[in-house]
Structures are given as structure tokens and as C-alpha cells.
Amino acid sequence: MDIQRRQFFRRLAGKTTDTALKHVEARINDRAKRWIRPPFAINELEFLLKCTRCNECISACPYHIIFSLPARHGADVAGTPALDLLNNGCHLCEDTPCVTVCQPHVLFRPPDVSPKHIRIAYAHLDTSQCLPYQGPECGACAAVCTTDNALAFTNDKPIINQDYCTGCALCREVCITEPKAITISSIYTHITEQGT
């Protein structure tokens, strides 16, 4: 086989591998819409390949909001850590104990990056459930948001500013309505919607 044909087949094999990898990653990201990883989690495919399921991050969380995904989600994700943001909020601890104990570095905090400047999820306000939009005053979420400019109020009605919100769900935790006026969704919901 001449050199040109070998180069052609190498390029073809490389493109096929890239296409297959992108397809696998898209499927993994689509599944990842069902859970939320702890702060500073690397991309989902790398996370699944490197996480040792040691549970050190779970033990290190002072607020007990990290848990192991159950086997019903699949053997490839079973035992990996996720956040329970349906019932609690992540305090985005400045010393990030969950990240510090992670030996395989699937939770990796770059130098000089504050937990208050990352996104772990998306918070959405349902104005049909939020009390101030119905007339009575509330403000339960007003004092709990620790991220500057993430939660604003116009005429005593809360507005979530997605440019600043980390998705920590502290506002959801204190929301007094039932069902909660704030829902939380995975960052992978938005990644797959944008096709990136």
C-alpha cells in the first residue's frame, strides 16, 4: 500500500473514532441530565472514567448533600457522587472539602477560582408558585442567597439572574411553597439543548 493510501486510511480511521467518541459523549451527557455532580466536577465522560467511587467526597461534605448514585441508573454511574439539591442546597464551601479529598481529581478546583464563580446547576423560578407573584409577601429566599447579584427583587418579587446564579439551590431549600417555586436542573440539560 502506498504512502498516500495509508495516510488516507489513517485520517479516515481518526475521523471515525472522533465521530464515535462524540456520539458516546453525547449519550453520556444526555443521561447526566438526571443528576448534578459536586462542585468543580470535570466533564461527565472523564468523570466516569476516572472516579474511583471511594466516597471520600461524600464523607467530607459538612452539610451531607453528596450521595452515591444508585445502581438503577446503570452500572457505569453507580456509586459515583451526586448532589441532593432537591432537598438541600450546596453551600459552596470556600475551602471546598469535597474537592480537597478527591484523589483522582474528578473534582478539580483551578487555582484562584472561587466556588461563588462556578455553575453547578441551573435554578428556575416558577412565578405561578412563587408567593410574591400571587400577592402575599414572602422573601424566604432573600437572605439565603450568598452569590452577589444572583437573586434580585423588583417590586418585592424575586428574579434569578442566570449570569450570576451558581445553581446552589439554597433558595430552593428555604422556599416555603409546596410544590417549591424553584426547580433545579443539571448543567447537562443546557449542554444537550445547545448541542455542545
Topology readout:
Blueprint: H1 3-31, H2 44-50, H3 56-60, E1 66-68, E2 81-83, H4 97-100, E3 121-125, E4 151-154, E5 157-160, H5 170-174, E6 182-186, H6 187-194
Antiparallel strand pairs: 1-2, 3-6, 4-5
Helix pairs in contact: 1-6
Brief account:
By secondary structure, the chain is α+β, with helices and mostly antiparallel strands.
Per DSSP E runs of 2 or more residues, the count of β-strands stands at: 6
Alpha-beta content class? alpha+beta
Mean pLDDT comes to: 89
String of helices and strands = HHHEEHEEEHEH
How would you write the strand order of the largest sheet? 1-2
Percent helix range: 25-40%
What best-fitting shape do the alpha-carbon axes yield?
globular
User: How many H/I helical runs?
Assistant: 6
User: Which segments are poorly predicted (pLDDT under 50) over 5 or more consecutive residues?
Assistant: none
Tally of distinct domains: 3
- CA(first)-CA(last) distance: 38 Å
**Strand residue percentage:** 5-15%
- Give the C-alpha Rg: 20 Å
Give a short account of the largest sheet.
Answer: 2 strands, antiparallel
Description:
The structure is a single chain. This protein is of the alpha+beta class and 196 residues long. It has three domains: 1-34; 35-116, no CATH class; 119-196, Alpha-Beta Plaits (2-Layer Sandwich), CATH 3.30.70.20. The protein has helices at 3-31, 44-50, 56-60, 97-100, 170-174, 187-194; strands spanning 66-68, 81-83, 121-125, 151-154, 157-160, 182-186. It has a two-stranded antiparallel sheet with strand order 1-2. Strand 4 (151-154) and strand 5 (157-160) form a beta hairpin.
